[in-house]
Design a protein that fits this description.
By secondary structure, the chain is mainly β.
């Protein structure tokens, strides 16, 4: 009888200890108001890269698993089971939420904590348009840090065009001109970053070259051997040429004898010089001396013939002179030949001595 009493007492003590552990777990269930900012920061880690990702790591004493209700989404995407020491990541749209975590111990007892969560997307940074033009086409490849996409506004179009970060779009303007492109970088939330940029699109480059047509890009091509060029106001509005703008050609001191300029006429940005439109090209020239030659060279023929080089003398000083280059006179250029490049040289027999001439109205005639 004495031994039975001892066994019963021991059993009662054991039940008392289990009850204490369960009660202790349950009593460790603070209300929402008792969740400190430190605890919340250790449980919720919010990304700052506009992905909306929030890492949730349940914390507490004595639990073996937790059910995390994200407060966003439904069904299997609205919650997750997380074992002690592990975490789960959920992508949130911008907004305010309540994350509810139900903790369970090994015996199936539970308590609940709630964590307020606000997800705010940052405004995109380092926004660039990355544009290039080809005749009336503009290619836009926008990029930005923390952008979830872009809206591109072309100012001759009412509605924007959407493009992903790192994506590319091509837009075609109906005509040449200068336009304002507006780029709105989207964060994925309310914050945006907007930039604008003026872009100019041109008609296909072609003859004649008047140096006054705003639809033509006269900056194409370049120089070699020490020559300098620029478009300037006509300093000599007299005689056969009273136009506003002309091309200034400077063969500076020490420039190479073979120096000159090159101008591309290759598709798709230009129309090749086709002999079907005429075998003669006329040029207005103003020089301060006579006796030196102006070269015109047509290169990169579509029929595979050699470069065609003609030299014509400047015979008038201090007045505009019309010089004609006849590329059909030799009979060496087959019908239908197209040239993709024009080269001009001045006085290719000597090094530069600071000569300055003016060129205008390069025109093809039959």
């Amino acid at each position: 009888m004495k031994k039975l009493k001892i066994y019963i007492a021991a059993a009662l003590l054991s039940l008392s200890m289990v009850s204490c552990e369960i009660d202790g777990f349950a009593n460790d269930a603070p209300s929402l108001s008792s969740v400190s900012s430190t605890e919340q920061n250790s449980v919720l880690t919010v990304s700052n890269d506009n992905t909306g990702n929030v890492k949730i790591r349940p914390e507490g004493e004595g639990f073996t698993k937790a059910v995390v209700n994200f407060g966003e989404g439904s069904g299997i995407s609205g919650s997750a089971v997380v074992t002690a020491g592990n975490s789960v990541t959920h992508a949130y749209p911008e907004g305010s939420y309540t994350v509810t975590i139900v903790y369970y111990d090994i015996a199936g007892n539970s308590y609940t904590k709630e964590y307020p969560l606000t997800v705010t997307y940052r405004a995109p940074e380092n926004v660039v348009l990355n544009e290039s033009t080809e005749v009336h086409n503009i290619t836009v490849s926008p990029k930005a840090d923390y952008a979830n996409g872009f809206l591109v506004y072309f100012d001759d179009k009412d509605q924007p065009v959407s493009v992903a970060n790192g994506g590319t779009i091509i837009y075609t303007y109906e005509k040449a001109g200068t336009y304002t492109v507006k780029l709105v970088a989207l964060s994925g939330g309310a914050a945006t970053t907007t930039i604008t940029k003026e872009v100019t699109v041109y008609d296909a480059f072609r003859l004649p070259l008047t140096f006054e047509d705003p639809a033509q890009n006269y900056s194409v091509g370049g120089t070699f051997g020490g020559v300098g060029t620029e478009i300037v106001d006509n300093p000599f509005k007299t005689g056969i040429n009273t136009s506003k703008k002309v091309w200034k050609y400077v063969k500076g001191e020490g420039a190479e004898s073979w120096s000159g300029t090159w101008t591309p006429f290759a598709e798709p940005t230009a129309e090749p010089i086709s002999m079907s439109n005429g075998s003669k090209i006329t040029v207005m020239v103003y020089a301060t001396e006579t006796g030196k030659y102006l070269n015109m060279e047509l290169e990169q023929a579509t029929t595979g013939i050699d470069n065609q080089i003609l030299k014509m003398p400047v015979t008038k000083a201090n007045e505009w002179q019309l010089i004609t280059f006849d590329f059909g006179a030799s009979g060496a250029v087959p019908d239908g030949t197209k040239f993709k490049q024009m080269v001009l040289r001045y006085d290719d027999s000597s090094a530069g001595s600071g000569e300055v001439i003016y060129i205008d109205n390069i025109t093809q005639i039959k």
